[in-house]
Amino acid sequence: MELNHTHDASVKSWLASANEPGTDFPIQNLPFGVFRRKGSDEAFRGGVAIGDQIVDLAAVAATPVLEGLPQLAAQACAGTTLNDFLAMGSVAWRALRHALFDALRHGAKSDLVGALHGCMLPQAEAEHAVPTRIANYTDFYTSIHHARNVGRVMRPDDPLTPNFQWLPIAYHGRASSVVVSGTPFHRPMGQAMPPGATAPVYGPCARLDYELELGFYVGPGNAMGEPIPLEQAEDHIFGMCLLNDWSARDHQFWEMAPLGPFLGKNFCTSVSPWIVTMEALAPYRVPFAHPADEPQPLAYLDTAANRAQGGVDVQLEVLLDTATHRARGVAPDRLSATSFRHQYWTLAQMVTQHTVGGCNLQSGDLLGTGTISGPTAPEAGAIVELSRGGTVAIDLPGTGEQRRFLEDGDSVILRGWCEKPGAARIGFGRCQGEILPVK
Q1: What Å distances lie between residue 209 and 181, 383, 410, CA to CA?
Q2: Is the CB of residue 427 less than 8 Å from the CB of residue 23?
Q3: Which pLDDT tens digits describe the chain residue by residue (439 residues)?
């Protein structure tokens, strides 16, 4: 992914809010999502975030603002999901993003500025839906730090499974329960085996957890039986979002032998509204390598390009907003913070591994990276790690409360951004969900 004029940090927009320090959505970002006017019965349609506004791509497609391929791409975004746009591929993605960049930059032609002004809605007046029609959702397990931390809870003497350092592990999740940020969900019911018991019990989840993840959306798919080689894998990735794979740990740990997660994972997965394109993230690509004294990827999972810039340095944090926080008007407490650069496998390797057996990905499919944890204790991406399986209480300084696992009324907030000297700060917005009592 080469840098181009859309990555120039000195470029400003004629929209003042896009130039404010710390904004998630400067002109160098331009993430895609679907929206409609809050509280209306309007159809959802594609949009692009900039500053505190949304560019309505259905409205843009109905005006002479764009022409040629950018216009066709905008028309593909006018429907209720972005699937048709994602299926068009990287040439179309780039054409629309560059055309919008040129129309939104300071000094753009006055007729373009006037036309786009009429195609904007304040973000505060919008509501969102999941950006694509997700036929398939797969969640990976690619943080070696998370794997070791959780493994010590489940298997203290042998925390890391033998295959972890040889391939990106994953399970197929439930696409129907993927919801957009802000959607509350009920505490799930299920079976669990209490410590020391000889028979399982049925009841509400007692060890509800979050998982700090990134998600990524498939662009063009592949035909069944045709694997995607590592060299071409990123051509099939449109962009990334924040993802919270909520987990019922007591149910999960009881049920997952021998076939893996089921009810412990399928009740809810939350995603942020905006998809940050891989092109926008180009300045934040970083080298990828396994430590020299650990197993190296097999040949089909290894290329010079993947080693040179397979990683992405996305800064991440988890905040907890309890009912007490809200009642007292206190800011949420930060639970942890880390970076995606610590992940043990790259996005491209995940795509290649997913298809190596002939599995056919489809445009709009969602893939999760798995929980993202860093090498130190404060970088844990799940509460089961922070509380060491519930044996250590986590203090919440803002309210004086403690947590070992999540309680009803808790709202977990994920945030993500990229920043470094010489590059524009790129944000992901937030992914938030609140836990309601069991039904």
Answers
A1: 16, 6, 11
A2: yes
A3: 789 999 999 999 999 999 999 999 999 999 999 999 999 999 999 999 999 999 999 999 999 889 999 999 999 999 999 999 999 999 999 999 999 999 999 999 998 899 999 999 999 999 999 999 999 999 999 999 999 999 888 777 878 999 999 999 999 999 999 999 999 999 999 999 998 999 999 999 999 999 999 999 999 999 999 999 999 999 999 999 999 999 999 999 999 989 999 999 999 999 999 999 999 999 999 999 999 999 999 999 999 999 999 999 999 999 999 999 999 999 999 999 999 999 999 999 999 999 999 999 999 999 999 999 999 999 999 999 999 999 999 999 999 999 999 999 999 999 999 999 999 999 999 999 999 999 9
Q: Are 316 and 372 in contact (CB under 8 A)?
A: yes
Q: Residue 168 phi/psi, 5° resolution?
A: -70, 115
pTM over 0.90: yes
Helix or strand (DSSP H, E) at 212? strand 212-218
Amino acid at 431: C
Rounded Cα gap, residues 378 and 386, in angstroms: 8
Give the integer Cα–Cα distance in Å for 385 and 435.
20
7 is catalytic: no
Q: Cβ(77)–Cβ(46) under 8 Å?
A: yes
Q: Which amino acid is at 4?
A: N
Tokens representing residue 201 in the block: 């019990």
Phi, psi of 204 (to 5 degrees): -65, 150
Domains of the chain, earliest start first: 5-129 (2.30.30.230), 137-436 (3.90.850.10)
Alpha helices, DSSP H, located in 280-341: 304-309, 323-328
- In which region does residue 289 sit, left (phi positive, over 0), alpha (psi from -120 to 50) or beta (all else)? beta
Q: Round to whole Å and give the CA distance between 177 and 243.
A: 13
Distance from C-alpha of 231 to C-alpha of 242, rounded to nearest angstrom: 25
Q: Quote the CA–CA distance of 352 and 290 in Å, as a whole number.
A: 17
7, 128, 146, 251: which is the annotated catalytic residue?
Answer: 146
How does strand 137-141 pair with strand 169-172?
antiparallel
